[in-house]
UniProtKB/TrEMBL annotation:
<comment type="pathway">
    <text>Protein modification; protein ubiquitination.</text>
</comment>
<dbReference type="GO" id="GO:0051260">
    <property type="term" value="P:protein homooligomerization"/>
</dbReference>
<dbReference type="Pfam" id="PF02214">
    <property type="entry name" value="BTB_2"/>
</dbReference>
<protein>
    <submittedName>
        <fullName>Putative chromatin remodeling &amp; transcription regulator BTB-POZ family</fullName>
    </submittedName>
</protein>
<feature type="domain" description="Potassium channel tetramerisation-type BTB">
    <location>
        <begin position="9"/>
        <end position="87"/>
    </location>
</feature>
<dbReference type="InterPro" id="IPR011333">
    <property type="entry name" value="SKP1/BTB/POZ_sf"/>
</dbReference>
<dbReference type="InterPro" id="IPR045068">
    <property type="entry name" value="BACURD1-3"/>
</dbReference>
<dbReference type="InterPro" id="IPR003131">
    <property type="entry name" value="T1-type_BTB"/>
</dbReference>
Length: 92
C-alpha cells in the first residue's frame, strides 16, 4: 500500500464501497486504527476488485468518513447515534 497522503484509497466496508484520500484516513486521528492500517506499515486485505476490505458496518462508515473529512457530526435518532458511536469507537 502506498502511504502517500494524496493517494486514493478504495474501501469496501461491510459491502459498501468508498473512495477517499489516504490523508483523510490518517491525518485527523493519527493514533486511530484507520491511521495505523493506512500508514503503509501493514498488509491490507483486498477484495476481488482491489478494494481494501474492512469488516465493519458500511452504513455507519460513511458518517465516520464525513467526520474525518470535516468534523461534521450527523443528526440521527438516538438508537442510530448510539450505534454510530459504537462503530466509531471500534474504527477510530
Amino acid at each position: 500500500m502506498d502511504s502517500d497522503s494524496s493517494s486514493l484509497v478504495y474501501l469496501n466496508v461491510g459491502g459498501k464501497k468508498f473512495c477517499t484520500y489516504n490523508d483523510t484516513l490518517t491525518r485527523p486521528e493519527p493514533n486511530s486504527m484507520l491511521a495505523t492500517m493506512f500508514s503503509g506499515r501493514h498488509s491490507l486485505i483486498q477484495d476481488h476488485e482491489g478494494y481494501t476490505f474492512i469488516d465493519r458496518d458500511g452504513e455507519y462508515f460513511g458518517y465516520i468518513l464525513n467526520w474525518l473529512r470535516d468534523s461534521d457530526v450527523p443528526s440521527l435518532k438516538d438508537s442510530k447515534y448510539s450505534q454510530l458511536r459504537t462503530e466509531g469507537g471500534r474504527i477510530l
